[in-house]
Amino acid sequence: MANDNLPDFISALLQAQQTSCPADTVRLVQTHISFVLLAGDHVYKFKKPVDFGFLNFSTLEKRQHCCEQELLLNRRLCPDIYLDLVKVTRDGDSYDLNGGGEVIEYGVKMVRMPEEKMMGNLIQAGKLDQVHIDTIVDKLTPFYQQADRTLEIDGYGTAESVAVNVLENFEQTKVFINNGAVSQEQFDKISSWAKEFLTREDLFNRRIKEGNIRDCHGDLYSANICLADKVHIYDCIEFNQRFRYCDVSADVAFLAMDLDFHGLDKLSDYFITRFCAASGDESLKVMLNFYKCYRAYVRGKIGLFTAGDEAVDPAVREACRNAAAKYFTLAMRYATRS
Length: 338
Fold this sequence. Notes:
2 domains, about 15% strand, alpha+beta, Aminoglycoside 3'-phosphotransferase, Chain: A, domain 2
């Protein structure tokens, strides 16, 4: 069924036989910020022209720059997956990839990974185990050790800098209170608890002094991990340095929270135990609950953003609302944990 809310070029690329998109069929997956086309052995990812303040894809130039950054940054963890920058061209009423007409959009071309090996699908199938967690830890430990650390990056680990991200979430979700996903009680409890934790500047300063603020991934959870012949960790944050320049504990807390979200608390604890042992970073545990709460709240917020996008299928919007409610419940759990 046609979707009138889709951009013309996306509708055209979905008609695989009408373009040079090398696939018999093309399937569309949407997030709050991207159109993702699954086409044969490849994936084509295009950024939506949105401006959320913390993220600005509102102009073609900004989208081109972020596509280029996406390629550069993601090649740190999976260089064989991120292939090239692609151009969407228009000639009259016809659209194509890397054609000879006017360039009207940019995207990223990637190798399509096996869906049955996606971490989220392994979780759903009940097949995720400690061996998988070990391989993830083995991939992440040297990544963080080698990740950039500068005085500028250190600055993003202060309580004041972290507060910018945390408090922004609360500002952006006020409008959604009592809409069925987040209640006033949850909002008040989580926000007050987070603000109180942010007053403990000594904890944040200790993490900086120990060298734990790095150029991280920024979006480390099961949707961005494939456990195939080797571990592929992809789709890092490219659009805003303040979400990627962060405490390593904020990064690993995201994946730990995600495992909690899927009811895998024991694997979540195992992941943290293994990571701390492999990295020698025991002080991470002091920050863990705070960053788990932060990450759960972010996922709830994103679910609400996606549910509010008219271009998204109604069934997906409803699923996103339901997931958001579950994330806010989880954030409340962290905020009320002694």
